[in-house]
Amino acid sequence: MALRSKTKRPKMAYEVMDIFKMKIENGTYDVVVDKGTLDAVFPEDTAENTQKVHFLFEEIIRILKDNGVYLCISLLQEHILTNVLNFFNAKKFDIDLYEVLIKGSKMFPFLLQIRRAKNPEANEITLHLRGKEPQKLKVADCIRSIKEVQTQNIFVQNSRKLRQGQRFSIDIWDQKSKLNVPKYTLHVVDSTVAKTLEKVHFLSR
Predict the structure, then answer these.
(1) How many other C-beta atoms can be found within 10 angstroms of the C-beta atom of residue 32?
(2) Given the DSSP bridges, would you call strands 64-74 and 110-116 parallel, antiparallel or unpaired?
(3) Is 154 exposed, middle or buried (0-12, 13-18, 19+ CB in 10 A)?
(4) What is the CA angle 100-101-104, rounded to 5?
C-alpha cells in the first residue's frame, strides 16, 4: 500500500499498530475511517468482545479532535448496531446512518458518521434511507427500522436469484412467544404452472 501511494500521495504516512494499543497523541486526527474493522473485531455478542469494542470507541474519541468525525462502514449486525448507538448516544454524539447501495454487491452496508454534538443536550440519531426523507429516531426505533431494511434487502436479493421451479422461504418469528416455532413462514416460488400459483394459503400458528 505504501509503495503504491508513494508517487500519488507522497505525504501520506502508513503505520502498523494494534488498534487496542494505539500510540497516538490525544486530538491528533480530523477523521477516523473504519472500513469493516468493527465487524471484524466484534463478530459475536460476548461480554469480552463488548468490553474490547467499548475501549476501542474510547480510543477513537481520544485521538479525534473536538470537531473530528468517526466514519464507520459496517454491515450492522444487531449487536454491533445496538452497541454503537447506545455508546455514542450516551456520550452525547450526533449519529448519522446512511444506507449504502453497491451495484452488483451481495452486501448491504451502512455508513455511520459520528461526531460530537454541537449541543450535547440535544444530540440526535438520524437515519438516511434510499428514497426517503431523513428520520430523527430514538435508539430502539432506529434499530427496528434498520432491521426492517436489512430483511427487505435479503428478501429482494433472494427473489432476484430465483429461476423457474425454484423457491425460498422466510420464517417470521414472534419474539414474545415461548414456542420454538415461527409464527409465519413465507414461501416464494418462481413457477409458470397455474396449479402451483393457485395454491395460495394464509396460515398462522
Answers:
(1) 19
(2) antiparallel
(3) middle
(4) 145
